[in-house]
Amino acid sequence: MDHPLPAPLRPPVTGRAETPVAFVRAIVQAYIQRGMDPLPALNEAQIAPNLLSQDDARITALQMEWLSATAMKALDDEALGWFSRRLPWGSYGMLVRASLTAPNLGVALQRWCRHHGLLTDDIHLQVTMEGGVAQLQLHENRDLGALQEFAVVSVLRNALGVACWLTDSRIPLLQTTLRFAPPPHADSYRVLFDGPTHFNAPAHSLQFDAGYLSLPVRRDEAALQRMLQRALLLTVRPYRRDRLLIEKVRQTLAEHPEHSRNAADLAGWLNLSARTLHRQLKEEGASLQQLKDAVRRDTATDLLLRTTRPIKQIAAEVGFQNEKSFMRAFKSWTGHTPDEFRSER
Known about the structure:
Blueprint (H helix, E strand, L loop, with lengths): L16 E4 H13 L5 H6 L13 E3 H15 L15 H9 L5 H15 L3 E8 L2 E8 L7 H20 L5 E5 L11 H4 L4 E2 L5 E6 L11 H8 L4 H4 L7 H12 L7 H7 L4 H10 L4 H19 L4 H7 L5 H12 L3 H7 L1
Parallel strand pairs: 5-6
Antiparallel strand pairs: 1-2, 3-4, 4-7, 5-7
């Protein structure tokens, strides 16, 4: 009789235990549906089997990541038994890859939803926008039964995680709506989703500021390959950085240069105080000067390539008082003088 291979050594579990044991039970149910033993997966995730009988038990995000990854590979089903047919390992990676070339998040999410429908017709996903609010809606085309909660929560959190990763931005939720009744572990939803969660709602949805739909997609194939090594992080842990203000500042600087003379003027245009503007940009990993330089650089390179305007005129147009200071700045940005840059292109 062959002996099973030992599970890989795991570090000790750390972090707050906030994921409800109901989700562990759902994964165990997927094993049972396939006539497979879930115990090795529980052991590998350092989850004591007796926790399954404790309604108020919780596990950590790391344990959930370990358990889900092991189960998906063992069952060869990234949907973990939710749907009427399996989603083989790599299915969700394929969905993300199809969205990489989208110009912005709105287009990327539309593609993600459309391609998800090619994997299964048990649910239907769509993105809508009304009154400045974007909604990612999930509609059930068949009864998901006992796995409904785990399936809906997982798909919505995965979609949100992908959206955050594609834009390298935290996307705070205005609210989450769910069709099912509040479960016994309803208090866990304050961790699962930002903002208020409303149960017994007409539809399953995530709602957020529609401004995020215009954020550019910032990832490429190399970034995707790195992400796929621990893709479940997108689902089990919240994304930290928010780039919406960065994009608003960048757009204002490009389209309304008259508001870029000082921080107070720009902040007033954005309905912020100058202090709040600087603080929030710092929290998002940027500074006003960096964004000013980036917009000036992009505008200058565009004018150098598209027009034959004199350097002095371009310098003035991008906000420099004289040609020499523009030439110094441009060389620091690109490693070339404006004339060299124009001639080499």
